[in-house]
Amino acid sequence: MTLESLQGKIFSWCRYTFGDKIALDTKIRALRVLEEAIELAQAEGVDEATAQAWVKHVYSRPVGEVYQEAGGLAICFLAWAGSRNVELSYLADIELRRIDNPQAIEKIRAKQAEKNAVGASS
Prior knowledge:
This protein is mainly alpha-helical. The protein has helices at 3-18, 20-23, 26-43, 48-59, 66-84, 88-99, 102-117. Helices cover 80% and strands 0% of the residues.
């Protein structure tokens, strides 16, 4: 599967699962990227104090340009995959298979509702 077709499939799943209001909200999508990046760092053994220090460092600097920062994120994520000797498309395909069923979608929608209740969606 090409990256473009995988991206389209994942975005279609996102729109189906959350609806356009959440799927198209770039701040919500950015928060989900942040959440997953923090969870990956945690899984790789980065402690909370170090993660918080990085957040403070980033927010002490001028705001970047969206597309340049997204490109940087893509480069860093691909480099991480290289360090793990794994293809991102393989990981994404496995995860999409795990979450693309009615039971998983209901659980994910419930988790999203919890995040909305605590203000984590905006």
